[in-house]
Specification:
globular; mainly alpha
Length: 158
């Protein structure tokens, strides 16, 4: 009886290994959260390189959208936040989300004021997206957009 358990155990172990291999292979090689909580970042084909010629039209569209009223300002703020996050990813800032990437890249900004302005802009965007009672203040959104623009220029993305 002891000899019959060993082959069954080995077959079960082999089957579990094959299932695990299939799961890992089907994930496309994407790394899940590790010990430190960081995933591999999307870096695009040109990690560490930003082409302002690619970013400028996106920024121009954001600014044009911001001139179309309250809903345009909200959309522009959301799109500016997404664009800034895209730039941080392309530059290889580590982290799982905007906040982690921004914190990890603090030293890449020319001044603390630029860094802090981006934080304020991102926090305003989060309030707008998540707070039910958010009241749009035009001057705050315009300042946030200006902060994102200053940050993009600081990173040489514009």
């Amino acid at each position: 009886m002891g000899e019959a358990i060993t082959p069954v155990f080995l077959i079960g172990l082999l089957a579990a290994g094959l299932i695990l291999y299939a799961l890992v292979a089907s994930s496309g090689g994407k790394r899940k959260k590790g010990r430190r909580g960081h995933r591999a970042n999307f870096a695009g084909p040109h990690r560490g390189f930003i082409d302002p010629v690619e970013i400028q039209p996106k920024w121009d569209l954001i600014m044009a959208t911001s001139a179309t009223g309250a809903s345009g300002l909200k959309s522009a703020l959301n799109d500016a936040d997404k664009l800034f996050d895209q730039v941080m990813r392309q530059l290889g800032f580590p982290g799982d989300n905007f906040g982690e990437r921004l914190k990890s890249g603090r030293q890449r900004f020319s001044t603390y004021g630029v860094y802090d302005g981006i934080w304020k802009a991102h926090k305003l965007r989060n309030s707008m997206a998540h707070d039910m009672g958010f009241d749009l203040v035009v001057s705050q959104v315009k300042e946030a957009l200006s902060n994102f623009e200053r940050g993009l220029r600081d990173l040489k993305a514009l």
